[in-house]
Specification:
Layout (H helix, E strand, L loop, with lengths): L42 H14 L6 E4 L3 H11 L6 E6 L5 E6 L1 H18 L3 E2 L5 H11 L5 E6 L6 E6 L4 H12 L1
Antiparallel strand pairs: 1-3, 2-3, 4-6, 5-6
């Protein structure tokens, strides 16, 4: 009788149980580091996420949530991770003070598009309300693909805002003219 050989390389990693810990681990230890499992529900976070979704539905203003611990902030980040319409960011305010901001990126882009169309239609500058650095970045980045407008940030501090101005010749024509001048 001939022995059968297994052509697959042998997996030398330790076998893990369902909870993610090694079998035969130290007694008295929780296999997940003392944290809840991903599939466990947190009623506080669920109600907070529901409230955030309702408030962001038609808003361009970010929602600021102070006084969450690191684990709660992580759970909220995780809720919006794969959503291109919403971005979450954590800002450090002091030694141990943090705030979580939830930005309605999709709404900001739609608002910027609407204002750009208005500037082109009226053929004059349109000033947007004051915004944070991140919000201005989103709008500049989104509108930079349009050759028919120009965006500039104007003002200082809390009064800093974006002005959208229609381009007379468009950016692509201006680039072409610059190239001609080089020759």
């Amino acid at each position: 009788m001939e022995e059968q050989k297994n052509d697959r390389p042998r997996d030398r990693r330790p076998h893990r149980d369902r909870a993610g810990g090694r079998q035969g681990g130290r007694p008295g230890r929780r296999s997940n580091g003392g944290h809840r499992h991903r599939d466990e529900r947190n009623p506080k976070i669920e109600s907070l996420v529901r409230k955030i979704r309702e408030e962001l539905a038609d808003s361009i203003e970010p929602i600021i949530i102070p006084e969450l611990n690191a684990y709660e902030r992580k759970l909220i980040h995780r809720q919006f991770d794969n959503n291109s319409e919403v971005v979450t960011k954590t800002y450090r305010l002091g030694e141990e003070d943090y705030e979580l901001r939830v930005y309605p990126v999709g709404n900001l882009k739609r608002y910027a598009q609407k204002m750009a169309e208005e500037a082109i239609e009226k053929r004059e500058k349109v000033a947007l309300p004051h915004m944070s650095n991140y919000e201005r970045f989103i709008i500049h980045d989104y509108l930079k693909t349009l050759d028919t407008i120009k965006t500039t940030s104007v003002g200082e501090g809390d009064d800093r805002h974006i002005e959208i101005e229609p381009e007379v010749f468009g950016r692509s024509l201006k680039r072409f003219i610059r190239k001609i001048r080089l020759f």
